[in-house]
UniProtKB/TrEMBL annotation:
It holds the Pfam family ATP-synt_10. GO terms for biological process: mitochondrial proton-transporting ATP synthase complex assembly. The lineage of its organism: Eukaryota, Fungi, Dikarya, Ascomycota, Saccharomycotina. This is ATP10. It comes from Candida oxycetoniae. GO terms for cellular component: mitochondrial inner membrane.
């Protein structure tokens, strides 16, 4: 090789090594991955490093001076690409296969609750409840520890309800009064997040029937959350990116996730969750909520 050719090669080679491939290549790789075959274990705290108010994250930037960047800027383009990547990867078929393979248990719960100083945050939001008012999630969390149900489908709803059937009692519905007596430091919060606008619209037409299945004192703790408010990156951090399944988070009064599980409750899961509830009840006696 001549001296000139060697010099040209030494210049071109680093450029070739650092050339980034198109974004769609990563997207295709993600969509080609097979469905989840088995549950994975949660061993470390999950959630966000700091509290995030979902509603205001983008709306605060809407102004006449910034509307161009918000609609056409690099950040807006990146955000739309992430949603597209997420939708392509989590197709209904992919999620359904993963749900079936794992019996809805996308992840298995940690063996105990996370310490407060190690725990990460659940996001905050403002959304309508069953009584039609707009409430802040964190506004409700300040009162007590919370068992938070998060689901987007009928199967997810059914999954999470299995965690409340204890010793022939149903703490979610018929035995809710007993639940409040046994665990006065706890409350149940529902986050129903329809997968599409049309499903949300249909849900809004059937609220009267939904109210019949929930104790009236909990109507202001049942949220209807628009699906788009929970972006893909936060779904991944909460491990709730399979919309066929349902998720349970035990969240403390400052919004930290102390324990979590998914799918249908096994016998061991059920015992573990209520062991966690009792343990955190004892913890709360030494705290001012």
């Amino acid at each position: 090789m001549s001296l000139v050719n060697r010099r040209l090669f030494s210049i071109v080679q680093p450029c070739l090594q650092h050339t980034s491939h198109p974004r769609f290549v990563d997207t295709i790789k993600e969509t080609s991955k097979p469905a989840q075959e088995r549950s994975y274990e949660i061993t470390r705290p999950i959630g966000l490093e700091s509290p995030v108010l979902l509603n205001h994250k983008l709306s605060d930037t809407y102004s006449l001076s910034n509307v161009g960047n918000e609609l056409f800027g690099a950040q807006a383009k990146e955000r739309r690409q992430k949603y597209l990547d997420y939708d392509l990867k989590h197709s209904p078929i992919f999620d359904a296969k993963s749900f079936r393979n794992t019996n809805g248990k996308i992840f298995t719960p940690p063996i105990s609750w996370f310490k407060s100083e190690k725990s990460l945050y659940f996001p905050d939001f403002v959304a309508k409840t069953l009584i039609g008012d707009k409430e802040s999630l964190y506004g409700l969390l300040r009162a007590k520890y919370s068992i938070v149900r998060l689901f987007s489908s009928v199967t997810g709803d059914e999954c999470t309800k299995t965690y409340f059937k204890v010793d022939n009692n149903d703490f979610y519905t018929s035995s809710y009064a007993q639940f409040t007596q046994e665990f006065p430091k706890f409350q149940i919060i529902d986050i129903n997040m329809p997968t599409s606008w049309i499903k949300g619209f249909i849900l809004s037409l059937s609220l009267s029937n939904l109210k019949k299945t929930i104790p009236p004192e909990r109507w202001n703790q049942y949220f209807i959350l628009p699906n788009h408010l929970l972006p893909p990156d936060i779904r991944e951090k909460l491990h709730c990116d399979n919309q066929c399944s349902g998720y349970i988070y035990i969240v403390d009064s400052v919004g930290k996730i102390r324990w979590a599980t998914s799918g249908y409750a096994t016998t061991d899961d059920l015992k573990l969750m209520w062991k966690v509830v009792r343990g955190l009840s004892r913890e709360s006696t030494n705290q001012v909520l």
